[in-house]
Every structure is written in structure tokens, then in C-alpha cells.
Write a structure and sequence with these properties.
The protein is of the alpha+beta class and 160 residues long. 41% of the residues lie in helices and 26% in strands. The chain has one domain. The chain has a 5-stranded mixed β-sheet.
């Protein structure tokens, strides 16, 4: 596992559970949450407008089983958000400078996912309800598990 974690810092690898992999293959999940991402992606996030904590990307990711390290497939990533949920839990909830822009990034990440979800479900986004009041979307968030330090939005998945 340590070897895989070291590879994540240099390569574009996303670790997924078997349940997540099934959801991705069934086009039920378009975002992968990761504790760590490559240094190259972190640099892209930091090159953007200061404290924006998100970036458009065009990267190919290898999808690997989180437990076994087995290569499952690949996907194109198009957007990454720095959420820092795990960092926040470890360091405590405070106004540390590391969290500047993170709240906004979290908002835009969930909003982006809401619009993707509406599109995939052939629903028109409800401007009065929004993602924060939608019970169906809240259930979807519970299903996919909204957490971790980074959210990588993917498309065009190829199974190996």
C-alpha cells in the first residue's frame, strides 16, 4: 500500500473500492475522492487564481483497486477541487491560512456535481431548490460518499 501511495505523488492514479468501480462503470459516479493526488495536479491547483483551490485539467488517470492495487482501467479527468476534509479533521477546525478558498471550492465542487447529476438524470436544475434542498441529490451524495481531500471529476472510462 505504501508503494501505491508513493506512486500517487508522481503519477495520475486514482484508488477506488469495488463498489465505487461498479458505480463508475454504471455511470452513477463521475467524481472520485482521494486523500492524495499527484504533485503535478497540486501544482496546477496552486497556479490558478490564489486561493481558488480548483483547476480545469486534461489528464489521463489510472484507476486501481484501493485494496489490491490491481489496475482496473483508465479515465480522463477534467476538473479537480481541493476540499481538504481529511486535513481539516486532523488539524482541527480553525481559520488556518491553508483553508482560504477551500469553502468556496467545496461549494463549487458540489454545485458542479449537482449540474452533472441533473444532466445524467435528464432533470432541469431547480433554481428555487438548488442542490442544498434536493432530497434526491442529498441521497445521491450519501450514496457516493462526499469527503476526502480532493475531488477529481472523470469521464470516458475505459475498463481493462
Amino acid at each position: 500500500m505504501q508503494k501505491i501511495m508513493n506512486m500517487i505523488q508522481t503519477e495520475n492514479i486514482l484508488l477506488v473500492t469495488p463498489l465505487e468501480w461498479n458505480m463508475i462503470m454504471n455511470k452513477e459516479k463521475w467524481v472520485v475522492f482521494q486523500n492524495e493526488i499527484s504533485e503535478k495536479l497540486i501544482q496546477k491547483i496552486n497556479e490558478r487564481i490564489p486561493n481558488e483551490k480548483r483547476a480545469w485539467i486534461s489528464e489521463t488517470f489510472l484507476l486501481k483497486d484501493k485494496e489490491t492495487g490491481k489496475l482496473l482501467g483508465e479515465a480522463n479527468g477534467y476538473k479537480v477541487y481541493q476540499l481538504l476534509y481529511d486535513v481539516e479533521k486532523e488539524s482541527g477546525y480553525n481559520n488556518n491560512s491553508i483553508f482560504k478558498g477551500v469553502v468556496e471550492a467545496r461549494y463549487y465542487a458540489v454545485k458542479h456535481l449537482y449540474y452533472e447529476w441533473c444532466s445524467m438524470k435528464s432533470l432541469k436544475p431547480n433554481q428555487n431548490e438548488g442542490w442544498f434542498k434536493s432530497k434526491k441529490f442529498s441521497k445521491y451524495l450519501d450514496t457516493i460518499g462526499w469527503s476526502s481531500n480532493y475531488a477529481v471529476f472523470i469521464q470516458e472510462v475505459i475498463k481493462y
